Amino acid sequence: MATFHLVAPSGYCIQQEAAERGVARLREAGHQVHNTGVIGRREQRFAGTDAQRLADLNQLAELSENPTIVLAVRGGYGVSRLLESIDYPALSDRQRRNPLLICGHSDFTAFQLALLAREGVITFSGPMLAGNFGAPELDPFTIEHFWKALTSPRFTLEWRSDAPACRTSGTVWGGNLAMLISLVGTPWLPQIDDGILVVEDINEHPFRVERMLLQLHHAGVLARQRAIVLGSFSAAAPNDYDNGYDLAQVCATLRERTGLPIVDGLAFGHEPCTVTLPLGAHGELIHDGKRATLSLNGHPCLK
């Protein structure tokens, strides 16, 4: 059984019942859950003051040597306020001694990418307490892939995609696209060469997705990648005004502009059904035009 340590560096958890349900589920499964006091903490729209939320992250360096899963309560907004005050060297020292398995997505992506950029620390883009573990019904796909990622030194994701065939390998990184874009031009955007960029988002219309990816293209980020994998883009349906312009058209435009392989269809993001990805791990992407696989290794895992 595992030990979970909760952090809430972003928005106030408006889904209090869901968060408590997530804690109960984890405990019923035999796991320990620590630091639950952060669930009800609130300061305006945030899960506590900036100082409190910053302490959530910096105090991770002082956790015991026991293997621990650090789980974000929810996303929202707030990590961007903290980036310049995070003690990255201390967290890196803790990770070298006995890595914490740090998991979350959405706004939490900013913290994860900053750790990767500053110290090369690998974290997991995956489920969070309220939205996933506390969902009305626990998604078996999500839970299976969560434990697979956190316990397997090597594992493979499989999905179907009609994208053109490709085969490549590199460093897997990315996460929430909007948060990644917010780091462009800052010290907290990883400078990844030969990468496999995996991105997802929610409430972003196809033209906004295209605009953000084009920003990465114009900034020279995509020129250093070997492939792009698109996860879930929830609530991104085109409307009548689009007249056929959709995410498939976005992919076609980006392939033409960048020359990069773009493989869509991965269950990854803000949907109840999501895989867990180690950001900073090595990946091998193989796609035959119908079936895609992404094999990962080099990440920390539970012993």
TrEMBL record:
GO process annotations (BP): proteolysis
Active site positions: S106 (nucleophile), E200 (charge relay system), H270 (charge relay system)
Domain LD-carboxypeptidase N-terminal: 6-126
Residue ranges crossing the lipid bilayer per the database entry: none
InterPro entries xref list: Carboxypeptidase_A_C_sf (IPR027461), Class_I_gatase-like (IPR029062), LdcA_N (IPR027478), Peptidase_S66_N (IPR040449), Peptidase_S66C (IPR040921), S66_fam (IPR003507)
EC number, as in UniProt: 3.4.17.13
Keyword annotations from UniProtKB, A to Z: Carboxypeptidase, Hydrolase, Protease, Serine protease
Gene3D superfamilies in the cross-refs: Class I glutamine amidotransferase-like (3.40.50.10740), LD-carboxypeptidase A C-terminal domain-like (3.50.30.60)
Residue intervals of the LD-carboxypeptidase C-terminal domain: 169-285
GO MF term set: muramoyltetrapeptide carboxypeptidase activity; serine-type peptidase activity
SUPFAM superfamilies from the UniProt entry: Class I glutamine amidotransferase-like (SSF52317), LD-carboxypeptidase A C-terminal domain-like (SSF141986)
Keyword tRNA-binding among record annotations: no
Protein family (similarity comment): Belongs to the peptidase S66 family.
Protein name stated in the entry: Muramoyltetrapeptide carboxypeptidase
